[in-house]
Amino acid sequence: MQYTQLKFALRNLWRNKFYSVINIGGLAVGIAVSMLILVFVAHELSFDRFHKNASTIYRVKVSFKFGDQEVQGTGMSAYMGPALKESTAGVKDYVRMYTSFNEKLAFKSDADHIFYEKRFVLADPSYFKVFSFPFLQGDPRTALDQPGKIVVSESIAKKYFGDSDVLGRTMTLNSGLDFVISGVIKDAPSNASLAYDIVAPLQSLFAFQRLLNPELKDDLLKVDNVVRPGSFQTYLHLANTSIQASVLNNITKLMRRGKISESEIKTHKFMLSALTDLHLGESSSAEARGINNLYIFAGVALLIILLALLNYMSLTTARANERAREVGVRKALGAFRGELIGQFYGESVLITCLSFLLGFGLAFFLRPIFFDRLDLQIDAAFMLSPIVILPMLGLMLACIVLAGAYPSLVLSAFRPVEVLKGRFLKSSKGGIQIRQSITVFQFVASIVLVIAAVVAQQQLSYLQSRKLGMNKEQIMMMTPSSEGFHAFRNAVSQLNGIEKTGSASMALFKDYNSIFFVTSPINKKEVSLHSFGVDADLVDMLGLTWKIPPADLKNTAGWEGKMVLNATAAQDLGVKSLTQANEVGSLLGQALVGVLNDFYFSEMSLNQKAPLAMSIVDKDFKGTLYLQLSKTANVQATMAAIGKQFKKHCPDKPFEYFFLDESYDTLFKAEDRMAKLFGIFTGLAIFISCLGLFGLAAYATARRAKEIGIRKVLGATVGNVMSLLSTEFLRPVLLAILIASPIAWYLMNQWLKKFTYRIEVEWWIFAAAGLSVIVLALLTVSIQSLRTALANPVTAIKNE
Length: 800
Known about the structure:
Blueprint: H1 3-15, H2 17-45, E1 57-66, E2 69-73, E3 75-76, H3 80-87, E4 91-98, E5 106-110, E6 113-116, E7 120-123, H4 127-130, E8 135-138, E9 149-153, H5 154-161, E10 170-173, E11 177-185, E12 198-201, H6 205-212, H7 220-223, E13 232-238, H8 244-257, H9 262-267, E14 268-274, H10 278-282, H11 291-318, H12 320-332, H13 337-373, H14 386-412, H15 416-420, H16 429-465, E15 475-478, H17 485-493, E16 498-504, E17 514-519, E18 526-534, H18 536-541, E19 546-548, E20 563-566, H19 567-573, H20 578-588, E21 592-596, H21 603-607, E22 612-616, E23 624-629, H22 635-649, E24 657-659, H23 660-665, H24 669-703, H25 705-713, H26 718-752, H27 763-789, H28 793-798
Parallel strand pairs: 7-12, 9-11, 18-22, 20-21
Antiparallel strand pairs: 1-2, 1-13, 1-14, 3-13, 4-7, 4-13, 5-6, 5-10, 8-11, 9-12, 10-11, 15-23, 15-24, 16-23, 17-18, 19-21, 20-22
């Protein structure tokens, strides 16, 4: 931009401060929030792409059908990785990882530093060769070459030892297995799927399993010597992507070589999943569900910026008659149209750049609040990475082009003769229609977002509040040590505020249950049964109800060592009576006590009816402990008392607990995030639309000031004037409601189809959305209308 053009642009901004604030402020706010959303989208799409070999790393997975259910898994035998590398040209390396831990793992550096760690993995030494995790200390080539070594992240080193200089120091796992730190790596970035903080060599697996089960005799790495599904996640580093078919063909050949039955080979379908697809393409967790949601977020973020740009174009062209004389005079003095286009484009460049600078500053300021509100974990450095900066620069250039194109063409096209004769206003009907179309579009977008926000919140509330078939209130879960389990349970059961205790082999809605497959002796149907253990006290605490009750409901001691089914499992197995239950029990190896009504117990059971078989464990069982707090309990005092007893009886375990209702709510993290984002989108879209409407109303009332003055002199009341001005802007809002309603109905019904259990989109949502937007639009316009209606008509009439 030339100096003269810059001077003219700055002078024009300063002369019209009110409209400059609306243009720059509206665009900056839209850019700030859209930038944060686009950062989130870019972050999700960038997962695992930081690895040097990301494009050629694949994970082996398998699917097979059992009965009517298709089962997918990522566990492979220990032999699969080595066998594929040996037999397949182009398999450069493999990494096997073991994460199938059936209990919480507590690491200890000293008596004051004991913590549960979830991000722990046993892996091959090639882990740090295939994946890109930079070392701060130690040698990646030898860090995992012997049992008993361990590599920790920088944050773990500081957490346990206070600094990162920890080579050669010892950490103890579950008070029985010592590891010597052989390396320290940088903390994994926030866009890493494999974000393990502690990595131990796979050769330590047997010692680890013996720690949990001293009677174990077989080393899984040695006895698991055929190619088939198993217990190890297996990643392959390929020379190029074209050899995937060769790898899959070799899996079939290796299975035949291992004398696997042809029926198993035919029913098992192996696949390779690209590392970069794992986070969004395959994950079923609440945190990474639905790539479609990301496209929705990105689309709406761009829509928000478009709404702000339309505000700028609308206000600029609305005020065209104020610039018309300037254009006419300059053209009469010899200015070419290209020069005028350059000037007006220069003003657009200035406004857009100022808006982006302000928007970028707002984005950095709002980042902690925004990410905390949506429970996002995104590194601050990611905001300044090329994957964010380059698209933002591209977006800024696009905004400059879009913002300047229409106004500069319109303003530069004025004919000097017509302008100087005052004929411009008579030929501006087309511009008014375009501005009205822009207003309609803005409010269509706003109304659709209002309806989307309400529907998303209604669906989330429905999911969180629907009947689970069990009680989840005031129940906490924790995992005491095996040595102190019973002493701790007995101690806390005597505390004031504790009503009941129970135990299970898993924490509901947090841990994974096991699955086994049976063929019913009654109807010959193949059924996959989810399974976990509970004691009779937990059945009572959860308030589970019976469909086919036990013969003796009061003799709960007689249930021990037996099994109960849920209604879905009973139906699939053909069980309709206790007699038939005994027939199935003989197949399962445990007598059946009865059949419970269905209840939700895991994320999977929320989306489809899941057959369940629960073993009733005896009083000696040690697993996850459940405590039910009384409704009148002083929670803070009760928790302090529980913590005191825990420290006394389980000194080698950290005091960590979860509430059952909160664990349930975390399953809907994706839906909660979407509802919050739509809430933000809706508020911002309405703000931008009303800001633009406010600017247009301010200009329209100023332009019609003389007309309104004459009307008042002739007897028009304040109410008449406000009605006149408000009606002009109410028509496009009403039209927007008619257009937006069917669009929103279609879009939200499509979104709801992904839920097995969903709400119906009711008529009142559309009525409430339309009414709220009408009220906001009227309030916005009324501010200017009232101001103009109350003005002294003499001032307006005498002003030429």
